């Protein structure tokens, strides 16, 4: 073999090894983002019209739209009546259910077809005579992992001894590796086998799944906590079960006002420079302007390195901001907290919730700042701290004491899901679930009430205020829900 | 028009912060250079020598996983031994059987060792980030933007010590010269009575020790979890080694500092909103310029 070809071979193998290592360590950059506001996504065989968008049945239907995102489809059996953008649903059964009201078991759901906004079809994937399967994708590995054991326990606790229309509800968790590509893989698999898919965490991952064609083509209801609104507005199958980041911005200001740090001085508004956080950033800066609070905006890379964290820490210390609003990757946030704080500079960290399990953030934040006097985090959350968890939660699983906030989240979500499933009246088709949910107001207990309409699937209405407590390494409920 | 430059915020802070961050890269780079000098290979497992050491040190300091709670110094010593042992095991099970194979085979094998190590670490510690106590608490400088902790001073001092010590070792001791001889002509070296196997084991043990030291010192300055040294520092450390001239131990030190400083200035002066990853582009542009001007790197010769 010639020296040249040997060198070439060595170069190729070295490059492969290098790539393998990077991929194995989760360093491969993800670029699945930058979805333009209001782009249409569905297509292929589509999901029918929704009364919102330009339901003209384009295939593949990925062209960006304008205005409110249209979930487009082939029409076919679709019943699109909206002119696009701000179209309205005119179905004969379009009246919302009174808040909290549930149809009695066995009641027939509103008839399909005919009514505008109703998805065609009767998809019963994930529903058997004995079980209703719910799939959750969440980062169990990757850059901001959530504890798998908590997920698995939390998925079971609420449903022990409970049935919905004579069926057990079983939640399965699948790792999305904190990457949009991983989330899409997980969601597509779950959509083929489970009735409903739930987004566990990660804005980009949630957005990727919500906009995935497989989920939309199969009318898979997709529910997550509120995150960005970018690219998610108008997706017929997507529902946010809590306030979006944009909606929470005025509440961050309200929380600061109630806790007397709003006017502490100039704020730093730190967000990842992903387009998915632009709505939140704009809303936050508007809210601060409205309150007459001066601020500086700092943008950080989405997957910030230690070097990026160091640079930001230097800037924050230099600015001596008394309050730092942060929206970004949890592990990056914790690195910044650790590197920023000192004996002479200890800001209040606030925002709409930095979570890889909120108490993991509190614990690591407290441990990392022990030398500089502890971590002062005050964040909004769709659920209260463990100090205000319901008694039934603590009594579950044999009264096990070491339950955590992940389990509480799943408990609260299960309460919500339970009521949402009952709305179907027993007709457990995906299309009927979506139809019923988008006309519902649900007060479920642990989560604040949610209220959906056919044109607004961002259902959150309020949030709790959490404050870190380094004596326990956890967040405690400082108040709320506020709205 | 004169640009308004705040000397403290725009010049001094990125310079000092970058140099400290770069010292960490240099510390890991030392191990890379050592193995390159000794075996003519790039060791992709170098970062994991450090991760294993950091995780073990942490486990003994806090007494997690059923391990006894030990004083920091003892725990760090165990971490250093673990890193050294990891280097030795890698040599015995991976590098030595592949000694006569093309070097690229060993390079690929070290990538496999790294992935295997990350998996084992995950098995024992889980994926959650951890925070370690510094070896020396307290702040050395805290003025305006700039903060330098005592731990960071320790890192720079350790790197300088190791770089000089290693350079002296290779130029002034028989063993150091033997390592260089083995890397250049193993057959002839064994003919004059030098045990190639013993030298190979020694080289890997030293690399393991240097990686372990880097991991134990880096962990308290950031969050750490399985694979963190590979994720955080391996690529910059490779860059530092190339900057310095891949065969020069003091070069790794200088290269690390250069990478850190350039990265911080890049971060400061090229907003990520304008150029995503601007700081890294800045680093690689600088590397290209250095290699164009000095193809052998900044200090590219056998030290």
- In which order are the strands of the major sheet of chain A placed? 7-6-8-9-10-13-14
Mean pLDDT of chain A: 77
Q: Tally of extended strands of chain B? A: 2
Shape of chain B: globular
* Total beta strands of chain A: 14
Residue fraction in strands of chain A: 5-15%
Largest sheet of chain A, in brief, is:
7 strands, mixed
Radius of gyration of chain B: 20 Å
Give the H and E element order of chain A: HEHEHEHHEEHEHEHEHEHEHHHEEEE
What spatial form of chain A do the alpha-carbon principal axes imply?
globular
Strand order of the largest sheet of chain B: 1-2
| Structural class computed from helices and strand pairing of chain A | alpha/beta
Largest interface: A-B, 49 and 55 residues
What would you say this structure looks like, in words?
The complex is a heterodimer of chains A (about 475) and B (about 300). With about 475 residues, chain A is α/β, with parallel strands linked by helices. Chain A is about 35% helix and about 15% strand. Chain A has helices spanning about 5-25, 150-155, 180-195, 205-210, 215, 245-260, 280-290, 305-320, 330-340, 360-370, 390-400, 405-420, 430-435, and strands at about 130-140, 170-175, 195-200, 220-225, 240, 265-270, 295-300, 325, 350, 375-380, 440, 450, 465-470, 475-480. In chain A, α6 packs parallel to α7 (about 280-290), α8 crosses α9 (about 330-340) and α9 packs parallel to α10 (about 360-370). The longest helix of chain A has 22 residues, at about 5-25. Chain A is globular and about 65 Å long. Chain B contains eleven helices and two strands, in the order ααααββααααααα. Chain B has a two-stranded antiparallel ribbon. In chain B, α1 crosses α6, α6 crosses α8 and α9 (about 230-245) packs across α10 (about 250-270). The longest helix of chain B is centred in the first third of the chain and has 33 residues, at about 5-40. Chain B is globular. The mean pLDDT of chain B is about 85. The interface between A and B is large, with 49 and 55 residues.
């Amino acid at each position: 073999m010639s020296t040249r070809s040997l060198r070439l071979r060595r170069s190729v193998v070295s490059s492969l090894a290098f790539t393998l290592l990077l991929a194995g360590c989760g360093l491969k950059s993800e670029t699945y983002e930058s979805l333009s506001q209001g782009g249409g996504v569905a297509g292929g065989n589509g999901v029918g019209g929704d009364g919102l968008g330009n339901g003209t049945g384009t295939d593949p239907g990925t062209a960006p739209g304008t205005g409110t995102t249209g979930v487009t489809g082939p029409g076919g059996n679709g019943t699109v009546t909206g002119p696009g953008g701000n179209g309205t649903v005119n179905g004969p059964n379009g009246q919302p259910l009174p808040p909290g009201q549930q149809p009695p078991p066995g009641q027939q759901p509103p008839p399909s077809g005919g009514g505008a906004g109703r998805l065609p079809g009767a998809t019963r994937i994930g529903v058997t005579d004995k079980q209703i399967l719910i799939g959750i994708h969440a980062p169990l590995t990757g850059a901001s992992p959530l504890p798998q054991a908590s997920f698995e326990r939390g998925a079971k606790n609420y449903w022990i001894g409970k049935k919905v229309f004579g069926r057990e509800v079983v939640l399965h968790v699948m790792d999305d590796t904190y990457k949009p590509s991983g989330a899409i893989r997980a969601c597509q698999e779950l959509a083929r086998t489970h009735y409903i898919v739930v987004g566990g965490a990660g804005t980009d991952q949630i957005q990727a799944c919500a906009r995935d064609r497989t989920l939309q083509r199969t009318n898979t209801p997709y529910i997550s906590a509120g995150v960005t609104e970018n690219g998610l507005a108008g997706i017929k199958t997507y529902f946010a079960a809590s306030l979006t980041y944009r909606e929470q911005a005025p509440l961050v200001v309200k929380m600061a006002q109630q806790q007397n740090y709003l006017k502490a001085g100039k704020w730093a508004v730190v967000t990842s420079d992903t387009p998915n956080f632009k709505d939140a950033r704009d809303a936050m800066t508007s809210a601060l302007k409205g309150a007459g609070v001066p601020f500086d905006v700092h943008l950080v890379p989405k997957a910030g390195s230690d070097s990026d964290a160091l640079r930001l820490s230097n800037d924050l210390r230099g600015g001596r901001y008394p309050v730092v609003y942060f929206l970004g990757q949890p592990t990056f946030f914790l690195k910044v907290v650790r590197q920023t704080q000192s004996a002479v500079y200890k800001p209040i960290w606030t925002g709409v919730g930095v979570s890889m399990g909120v108490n993991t953030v509190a614990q690591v934040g407290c441990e990392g700042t022990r030398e500089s006097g502890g971590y002062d985090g005050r964040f909004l959350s769709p659920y209260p701290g463990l100090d205000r968890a319901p008694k039934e939660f603590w009594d579950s699983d044999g009264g096990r004491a070491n339950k955590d906030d992940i389990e509480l989240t799943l408990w609260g979500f299960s309460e919500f899901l339970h009521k949402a499933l009952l709305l179907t009246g027993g007709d457990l088709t995906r299309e009927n679930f979506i139809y019923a949910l988008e006309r519902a107001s649900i007060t479920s207990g642990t989560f604040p009430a949610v209220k959906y309409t056919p044109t607004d699937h961002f259902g959150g209405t309020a949030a709790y205020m959490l404050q870190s407590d380094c004596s326990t390494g956890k967040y405690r409920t400082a108040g709320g829900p506020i709205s | 028009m004169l640009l308004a430059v705040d000397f403290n915020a725009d010049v001094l802070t990125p310079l000092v912060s970058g140099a400290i961050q770069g010292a960490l890269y240099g510390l890991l780079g030392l191990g890379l250079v050592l193995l390159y000098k000794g075996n003519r290979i790039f060791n992709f497992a170098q970062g994991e020598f450090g991760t294993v050491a950091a995780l073990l040190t942490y486990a003994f300091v806090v007494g997690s996983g059923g391990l006894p709670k030990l004083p920091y110094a003892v725990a760090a010593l165990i971490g250093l031994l673990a890193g050294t042992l990891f280097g030795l095991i890698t040599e015995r099970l991976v590098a030595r059987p592949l000694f006569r194979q093309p070097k690229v085979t060993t390079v690929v094998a070290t990538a496999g060792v790294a992935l295997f190590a990350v998996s084992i670490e995950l098995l024992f510690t889980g994926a959650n980030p951890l925070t370690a106590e510094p070896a020396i608490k307290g702040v050395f400088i805290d003025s305006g933007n700039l903060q330098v902790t005592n731990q960071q001073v320790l890192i720079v001092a350790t790197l300088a010590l190791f770089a000089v010590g290693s350079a002296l070792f290779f130029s002034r001791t028989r063993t150091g010269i033997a390592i260089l001889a083995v890397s250049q002509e193993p057959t002839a070296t064994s003919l004059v009575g030098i045990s190639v196997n013993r030298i190979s084991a020694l080289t890997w043990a030293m690399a393991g020790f240097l990686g372990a030291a880097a991991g134990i010192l880096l962990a308290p300055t950031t969050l750490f979890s399985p694979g963190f040294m590979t994720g955080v520092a391996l690529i910059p450390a490779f860059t530092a080694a190339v900057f310095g001239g891949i065969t020069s131990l003091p070069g790794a030190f200088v290269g690390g500092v250069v990478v850190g400083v350039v990265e911080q200035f890049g971060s400061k002066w090229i907003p990520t909103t304008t150029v995503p990853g601007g700081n890294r582009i800045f680093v690689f542009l600088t590397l290209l310029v250095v290699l164009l001007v000095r193809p052998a790197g900044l200090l590219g010769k056998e030290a």
